[in-house]
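Much of our argument rests on the idea that a fold can be written as discrete symbols. In the encoding step, the backbone of a single protein was reduced to a row of integers, each denoting a local shape. This step matters because it turns folding into a mapping between discrete strings. For completeness, the protein is quoted in full, as a sequence line and a line of structure tokens:
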Amino acid sequence: MRHKELKHWTSGVAQLLAQPTGRPRLLGLSQWLQQICHVDHFVLFVYEGNHRPLALFDTFPPDKRHVYVQDYQVGPYLLDPFYLACTRNQAAGLWRLRQFAPDHFYLGEYYLTYYQQTGLTEEVAFFIDLADGAKAVLSLMRSACSPAYSRDEMQLLDCAQPVVEQVVGQAWEQARAQAPRPAHDLDFKIRETFDHFGAQVLTAREQEVVQMLLRGHSSASVAEQLAISPGTVKIHRKNIYAKLGIGSQSELLGLFVRDLAGQRDEPEPLRTAV
């Protein structure tokens, strides 16, 4: 960024902070960040305790918002590397999605069946710590027609972290004061579905394997994470597919998604889990 551009960018901070707190200032933030580099879509999710993700702000057109936000909130967020990083209390800062993605994320069924629908090729995000342990993730998304974020762009975006934290933090405080999260927004049922997916027919170890496969881990990665041999993982997968009456990982994801929607009948158990 040249001196003249830098001066214009920094002077924009004052204009940004002069906007009313909430959506106007968040929109101003997205426009200010666009001065650094092109971004196709912005979305700000807040992950708070046992609530479903709250979309505090986004720039999606109506025809795309259903996939990016509403479909995501139904349950696929449980497989999102950014969400999982928040559950591990990832430090605040600017991060690329691929820094957290499992080894087969871009080949896995979550990506191919859900994430690919968004048409995105890269996603980076500001992680912001909020009050009472909540986390905000402001994602900067690029579609297939845009290149990956360059090292220079990432360095400049990183400089914006203090401003992003202030704007997002104030927007969250305003949202909490105006509209407390309703009880029906809790995601206990969604989490329970994930945690107990296949529990009637699978063993506890097989359930662990299923959860990792759904999140995009390869068999080798599952073996490493669970400290078992790749051959053992292969046996587990074979048994899992047989018990659930499926033949592929894509069918496995399909069963999980239908479980979330409450549309799938339980399979006839071949053997009781032990």
Remarks:
- The first helix runs from residue 3 to 17.
- Residues 135 and 263 are 31 Å apart (CA to CA).
- The beta strands are 41-47, 54-58, 93-96, 120-129, 135-143.
- DSSP finds twelve helices and five strands in the chain.
